[in-house]
Specification:
Elements: H1 3-18, H2 31-34, E1 42-47, E2 53-56, E3 62-63, H3 68-80, H4 101-105, H5 116-127, H6 132-147, E4 153-154, H7 156-165, H8 167-178, H9 186-197, E5 199-201, H10 203-209, H11 225-238, H12 244-250, E6 255-257, E7 262-267, E8 271-276, H13 287-300
Helix pairs in contact: 1-13, 3-5, 5-8, 5-9, 6-9, 6-10, 7-9, 8-9, 11-12
Bound molecules: 6-diazenyl-5-OXO-L-norleucine.
């Protein structure tokens, strides 16, 4: 497909989304995110051949939140290798992203690295043996290298806002520590985790940052081919929490969502796709972002199935 045809499709999706009646609801449990204007929508595609096509509010920075968990997982696997799987599983949870119930029955080993409990363990692994500042420098450095763009920063206000209200995450971290599955003090791990989640990117930057997961020649190569496959497998099965089955059914692509309203999806060998719309559905995934991904995947005949 020509660049002009792709651009026309993205523009048409933006027009349809902007006419939507239901925009979902912004996350309100992090006060700084509750202030984000609801009616925003953006989509961007970075094809394997190069370049990026974007439409809508694609240059508005937003809080990537849980989309950061994919970058953190890639780094933690680079540091710990398969040892990481002793601490965190690889199964969908079927529970909300911030649920605590399974931890008690499953001896403090979170189901997967994308639910909050699993992501806290992943960040703890990155933090091992060094200060939060250094761990965050590595995470931010990885994201910038993936996007090939140094103009990406952490929003400290968002991190502080979550820290003041993150009681569930504190509960998860202390619970993990009680099961001996947290090497560092909960305050240090969560300070790092909240800042990692508070990375801000535009939709265009996020699509570019996802290229390392596409697995095609000429794209930023930050992890091995075998690891690319496994990261994509986890995104497909766990990337949208208890909405992962529904997302696979409707969109058919590995993806990772965040409560800031971003979703990063991968078309293996073909493209990296990012959407942003801060209104969420009941699972905490972008409502219009999911609709847009569904429309684009169908139009482009993109699916892993
Ligand atoms: O830990 C939290 O609750 C947030 N920092 C991130 C959660 C999130 O993005 C879940 N995604 N849908």
């Amino acid at each position: 497909m020509s660049a002009a045809d792709l651009q026309a499709r993205l523009d048409a999706i933006v027009d349809r989304m902007r006419a939507a009646e239901d925009w979902g609801a912004v996350a309100d449990y992090i006060p700084e995110l509750a202030r984000v204007p609801l009616r925003q929508f953006a989509i961007a595609v970075a094809p394997a051949e190069g370049g990026v096509a974007a439409a809508g509010d694609a240059d508005v920075p937003f809080s990537i939140q849980s989309v950061s968990k994919i970058f953190a997982l890639a780094i933690a696997l680079g540091r710990a290798g398969d040892q990481l799987w002793n601490r965190v599983g690889r199964e969908p949870s079927g529970s909300a992203f911030n649920s605590i119930v399974q931890l008690e029955h499953e001896q403090g080993r979170p189901r997967n690295p994308f639910i909050n409990a699993g992501a806290i363990v992943t960040t703890d692994e990155i933090l091992k043996g060094r200060a939060p500042r250094d761990a965050l420098a590595e995470i931010l450095g990885f994201v910038r290298a993936a996007a090939e763009d140094d103009d990406i920063y952490i929003n400290d206000r968002v991190a502080q806002s979550e820290n003041h209200h993150g009681h569930r995450n504190y509960a998860l971290a202390h619970f993990l520590r009680a099961f001996d599955n947290l090497a560092n003090a909960p305050e240090l791990v969560l300070g790092t985790y909240f800042h990692q989640c508070a990375i801000e990117m535009t939709t265009r930057q996020l699509a570019l940052a996802g290229r390392f997961l596409v697995g095609a020649p000429g794209l930023p190569r930050l992890v091995s081919t075998a690891r690319i496959r496994r990261l994509n497998a986890l995104m497909l099965t766990c990337g949208q929490y208890d909405g992962s089955g529904e997302f696979a059914f409707r969109v058919g692509l590995p993806a990772k969502s965040g409560v800031g309203g971003g979703i990063l999806a991968i078309v293996p060998g073909r493209a990296s796709v990012a959407v942003f719309s801060p209104g969420l559905d009941g699972y905490g995934n972008s409502l219009l972002g999911t609709v847009a991904m569904e429309q684009l995947a169908r139009q482009m005949d993109w699916s892993v199935f």
